[in-house]
Design goal:
With 230 residues, this protein is of the alpha/beta class. It has two domains: 2-75, Orthogonal Bundle (Arc Repressor Mutant, subunit A); 91-218, 3-Layer(aba) Sandwich (Rossmann fold), CATH 3.40.50.10770. The chain is built from ten helices and eleven strands. The chain has helices at residues 12-15, 19-30, 37-44, 48-60, 80-84, 107-117, 131-136, 157-174, 186-199, 219-225, and strands at 2-3, 7-8, 34-36, 64-68, 71-74, 91-96, 124-130, 145-149, 176-180, 203-207, 212-217. The strands form three sheets. The chain has a six-stranded mixed sheet. Strands 3-5-4 form a three-stranded antiparallel sheet. The protein has a two-stranded antiparallel ribbon with strand order 1-2. Helix 6 (107-117) links the parallel strand 6 and strand 7. The chain starts with a strand and ends in a 5-residue tail after the last helix. The model is unreliable at 1-6 (pLDDT under 50).
Length: 230
């Protein structure tokens, strides 16, 4: 699958069909997404020419990249560092902000509060919104990084995906990325769901009236999809 500007999507399901490949990506994920050949060999139990073969296979599938001589990195740290708790890998939140209306508190703030109660505290917060919505919340001086959409973009699924994808791919390389499809518009919600499915990223939705958090795509669902039960 081709994504973004001609980039190839990592072929995760093909990669994880083979046990030795699963062992390698798990080892790399637990080490934070970057490891030397000797570290992978020692920890994964996959050795010598067999390890070379599987690293080449994972590279061909765009799941792994050669960082420098003898060192390899996961192309994206989500999903594997998320699944296996990658050491030292920070978390990024990518959400949506809708118009204010009668809301006393931004949806993003509610989501971050509820995530905190579950022990998830993102190191970096990116929010997609329209200029109209942002202006309605302007007096709160929200401390987030913004991706601004025109009014015609925020109601167009493909336009939102095109707007968000470059930043999402950049974040995926260094962060465990959590998507939140609450609010904004229905097309925005759909766009985020499709992006999360494409990139095997966790996805949440907030029921604002009851202040409940729903994991639409959880760690368990990603593992099940990749047949990584251990």
């Amino acid at each position: 699958m081709v994504i973004g500007r001609g980039r190839k999507m990592p072929m995760y399901e093909a990669a994880t069909k083979v046990e030795n490949s699963r062992r390698i990506v798990r080892t790399m994920a637990e080490m934070g997404g970057i490891a030397s050949f000797s570290q992978i060999e020692k920890t994964s139990g996959v050795e010598g020419s067999v390890l070379v073969y599987h690293l080449n296979r994972l590279t061909d599938l765009n799941v792994v990249e050669r960082e420098v001589r003898g060192t390899y990195r996961l192309t994206y740290k989500t999903p594997f560092c998320y699944i296996y708790g990658g050491k030292g890998v920070p978390t990024a939140y990518l959400g949506l902000l809708g118009r204010r209306g009668s809301r006393p508190q931004p949806e993003t703030a509610v989501a971050l509060e509820l995530l905190g109660k579950e022990g998830v505290k993102p190191d970096f917060v990116y929010v997609v919104t329209s200029m109209t919505a942002l202006n309605e919340w302007g007096d709160l001086r929200l401390p987030y990084q913004w991706i601004l959409c025109y009014e015609e973009e925020i109601v167009d699924i493909d336009a939102i995906k095109e707007k968000v994808t470059p930043q999402l791919e950049s974040l995926l390389r260094e962060y465990i990325v959590l998507l939140d499809c609450t609010s904004a518009t229905k097309p925005a919600t759909i766009a985020y769901y499709e992006l999360a499915q494409t990139y095997y990223a966790p996805l949440i939705y907030i029921y604002e009236e009851t202040r409940q958090l729903k994991w639409l795509i959880s760690k368990e669902k990603i593992k099940e999809k990749l047949k990584m039960t251990s």
